[in-house]
Specification:
With 401 residues, the protein is of the alpha/beta class.
Length: 401
Amino acid sequence: MPLMRHALKIQIMKKTLFFLFLFAIVSGCSSNAAQTNPESEDPSTDRMQPDPASVRQYLVDKDATRETAALFYNLKEISETRYLVGVHENETIMNRAGNVSEALYGTDFMFITDYLRNTGSWYKNKQTEIRDKIKARCKLGEVITMCWHYRNPISDEPDNFYWSSLLKENPAQENIVPRLIPGGSQHDRLKASLDILADFANSLTDDSGNKIPVLFRPWHEQSGDWFWWGTPHHCTQEEYRKLWKFTVEYLRDIKGVHNFLYVYSPNGNTADEGTYLNTYGYPGDAYVDVLGVDYYLTNVTTAKVNTQAQLKLIADLAARKRKIAAFTETGYDSGKYPVQNLLFTDTYAPMIGDTQIAYMMFWSSENYIPSGSYMSFHSYVRSPRVVTSINCPDMFTFPTN
């Protein structure tokens, strides 16, 4: 009997050790899984440190320049309490609002890449003009954001970025995206344009020779049907993802562009997470630095509610995914709707409230910041939450304390 009890004890001990060993393996796997999934951790316990190595692990480009990493860090930090404001390619509207300059300058790659097909001196001069403006604005401390109204690059076809214009000229117009992505018959056209875009990006240097960081916003407003890259209107979600991913990988890995933060910005009506991330071809967290939305106000009451929901959505997603949220394009079309004299103080300011966005870009035409609302705009841009040239910190260096 003692011998049998001893044997039984040994069996129990062996089983106990086996289950302890198995538990240790499972726990280790779970721990590793949590470390590789950024959404499984509490963001408040995993704060970025103000140094390039800490920030780069969150970026699309792990080789991003120091200045680009600093811009991401500073935008993320500033979004907790304030946000930058700018007007796309318009140097006068901010000054009319009381000698205030913007903290954010927007321009376009459209005329830079267009000279692939239009080789006249006007296009080359336009490229020089845009480069000089970017350098001057960066020297003033302004953050640069660039969209890309990419005209159809395929020869012997209509030359426009609006689908309706392409159809008007050619009712039999084929979808363009499937022909530009890898494996498409016109893939070399896309690469040729990206070559020009990359050369321009790498030519953007400040007075010290450092590459100027750019918030690059390609393939924007794809949720609408007006651009030829709209999905699901003129390409499938998977085709759109391939277009986006190839753009990033070609610029980053082949052309050595390391001064871009990549901005994803569908148009409005994206207030639920499933639509924002699934319906419009979101390329994945590894290919996006900034979660944005473009939305223009029409009926101010309805728009206020809708926009609040969309901004909250991207702010919540950005917090969870360790990204930046931004109101990437907006305005109020006074050409179509009655001028709202208190548009900015009574609509925009409360609409944004304390939502954690890093910046907001108004579109360029004065239709979108109507002159009848300048007094409201003047008060708005001087409010504590808004960052302009007056109160903008250095966005391209890491804080030292």
